[in-house]
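Could you please consider the sequence and fold following this short note?
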Amino acid sequence: MYQKLISFLNQHYRRYHDWMFYILTLLVIALATGLAIHITRDKNEQELINSREKEIYVSEFTVKQKPIYVALQEAGLENREVSAIVDKLNSVTDTRKLQNQDQYSISTTTDGKFAMLLLHKDLAHYFVADAGGKLIAGISEVEIKTRIKSTAGKIEGSLFNSMLKDGVTVPLVVDLTDAFSWTIDFNTETRNGDEFAAVWEEHYTTDGKITGQDLVAAVYKGQVTGENYAFYYNDEFFDETGKISKKMFLKSPISFRGVRITSRFNPRRLHPILRIRRPHLGIDYAAPTGTPVQTVADGTVTFVGNKGGYGKYVEIRHANGYLTTYGHLSRYAGKTKKGAKVKQGDTIAYVGNTGLSTGPHLDFRIKEGNKFVDFLKMKNRNSALRSVPKEQRKDFEEMKTLYLKALNEARAANQPRPSTAAEAEE
């Protein structure tokens, strides 16, 4: 029997060999596939568990709401770790100079481990992150884009209120008044119906936040002032002829911010507090407390301190025997010290209500030699005339052409649309 079995296998081995090989191969493949599916399922389940374990929680604050170190402590971090994180942040920015509006976020895992601190300050993002148990810090700059914008309108009440529209900011209004500071006194020479137009570069972030506005061209057409142009070129404002005329004195000690003159130069003014007639040898500019006061010309500070009815007071000596005084101030600028050199337009102090005063205002006076004179009627305002250099004239003219086009388009867009015949019939 045994010999017959052996003989059968020897006779039929070749017939069944391949068939048995295929069956065994299929069994191995099936077993391997099942095992792979099981391993993959376990791996996916483990990854899901791990991802849940590593879920990140983010808390957001402003510096005013909560100091950074307090938020880190409240996130459950130990004092040693809090100190290390703050020290690391200080390696890329000075946390002592943070402002109340600065924003930051703290990210932690579900098991309370620190993941990241992200600080939004000025135009940059500062971060501290945990990289495998080691703290790293860095800076990511915010992308800034630039676009050209313009506006035009007519004076209704004041230039300040008339321009605060169409996205115009207070600094841009001030830039416009500064561009004409030697030719127009916006405190005394503006009239209702005067026309203005401005073109500026507007800088903004990708999320739409405006970061700055730089005036590049402006025109002011007034009943008293006539038509005046200003084009920004090589860090200066030139007129349409390519000339710039810097006079010895600015037109006003206060850059336009809605101020008004409440008392002029008057030899027989009735004093509002003393109720007696006495000369008022200066000009009173009413303005909110804290409004910057600027020196009208280059000079040297000769007095800083309290002076009787003038309250807090500054005196500046200028070339050609001129002296200017600034009274009723609230405080002085940091650099305003006796003997300090100041440049035309520098902020020297701030409007206040000190001394004999009925309200916040600046008492401004100018003396020529030993005699006080009416600043608004002064004719002797020496000019220093300069022109665009000859080799840059072509470049200036090309730039001016572009800006003139933008100004004219803004002015045209501001003109009333003429009514049609159909609208007239209605």
